[in-house]
Amino acid sequence: MNSTFVQKRRVVVVGLALVTSALHAMDDGTSISQNALDALKEADNLYCAGDYRDALPEYDKALKGLVLDQLSADQKTIADAHTNYGQVSWALGDYRTGHKMFDSRLQILPEGKALQKPLTEERLRELQDANSLDKTTLLVRAEYGLGDTFGFMKGLKALQDAGVTVILKVQNPLKPLLSRSIECASQVINNGDKEPSYDYEIYLMSVPRYTSNHGLAPTQAAEDIPHFGQYIHPLEKKISQWKEELRGCKPLGFCWAASANPVPGGRLLKRNIPLNILAQLSTIKGVRACNLQGLPHRPISQNEYDQCKADNEFNGLDEGDILPKEYTIETFPNFDKDGPFEDTAAVMRAIQILKGKVVSIDTSVPNLAGAITEYNADAGESGDTPVIMLLADKANIDARWGEVEPGTCGEISRLFNSVVIYSQGEPGDWKTVIKNLRKDLDIEFNGGEGTSEKGNEAASAGQSSAELKSVPGISLVKYSLEDGEWKPTPK
Known about the structure:
The protein folds into 3 domains: about 5-110, Serine Threonine Protein Phosphatase 5, Tetratricopeptide repeat (Alpha Horseshoe); about 120-210, 3-Layer(aba) Sandwich (Rossmann fold), CATH 3.40.50; about 235-490, no CATH class. Helix content is about 35%, strand content about 15%. The chain has 18 helices and 13 strands. It has helices at about 5-10, 15-25, 30-50, 50-70, 75-90, 95-100, 120-130, 145-150, 155-160, 175-180, 235-245, 265-270, 275-280, 300-310, 340-355, 365-375, 430-445, 455-460; strands at about 135-140, 165-170, 185-190, 200-205, 250-255, 285-290, 330, 355-360, 385-390, 410, 420-425, 475-480, 485-490. The longest helix is centred in the first third of the chain and has 17 residues, at about 30-50.
């Protein structure tokens, strides 16, 4: 068997036991290729539907067949199957298998993205045994979305604590903010920077194969996910500004839509919650609702939306951005003018300090909020959970959040101990989610008194629960109804 043939099969060989099982599959006379591809199709369908427990045996069946017949699918199909198998394993809590399988994505990287000096588990052990970690420089390359960077970078602390010099290469907008994350990296660079010399490199989402809550040991289960405290740090000056701005109320920060342009009918779009439903939380007594939403989405009136529709110029807006006149959400036009996420991070930290809440769908926002409000589990630090993440039905939930039961109310996330989850009980039913959350928040903020019919009538009449203030350096806007149009009125 020549080396080329071995290389082609390397990604699919999963042990002698699988080969034996695949041989038995030939007994029924059906081609292994067809059986494997049928199983793979079924597994992918189940994975996309969020039926992880049913998907796992189908992936097993598919991969067993592919061991004997590499011609039944190209390398990308096989690597994708392994990658999805890995995400299914994440959802089911088997992180050791999940991260190993997920690394199959490295077999099909675009040209120029392959690692030239990859760090392997074997090499890391050798460096440990030789007491050479403090002489090792590791370049860690961020990948996928901004939220993935916020979430996965916490695993770098164990490498730094062991003496490794960590250089983190991030997406361009994140460099200023993450340069202050000294727990996780000695240096932060972006795509515009020249790479310094390094000994080894890995992709960021591979880090859990090397580190966990126990140091340089792989993350094998949910309890191994590190929770060592806050590791992304907003500017203290901005936190103070926002604390002063929001003092005297219960601030709620809202994010209702993915900022990226989602595929029509795709999973990202189905994760969005219409603003007219989310904004019902703004009527809770004592609450002040703030807009944390990234562009292109923003609150708009029905008239403005109708005009966009007539002109066929939506500029990224959609019906989910329509804010009914009975609700008030404050928008800050100079938000993040000093750098991407600088105000977003600072206001979310201020919201936590003031015992408010960040309420967001699954975007970069709850990942960032989790990173700036994380609690130190080892030190026994505890606190309330200032971040509420709204998840859609199981077919549209990222597998990393785990098997989330339909209709979940207030379950602490396995990824961040400062994040709680509320999820849809039925596909598309955001109204029940917000009804349950509104009740829970009203009990926490007001002892439940704001749930009365009288209180709801007052809220529907558009009565504001918090008075606008002005802080130097922060330009505040309140949307108000003028001649049938929602117009921003600077304060």
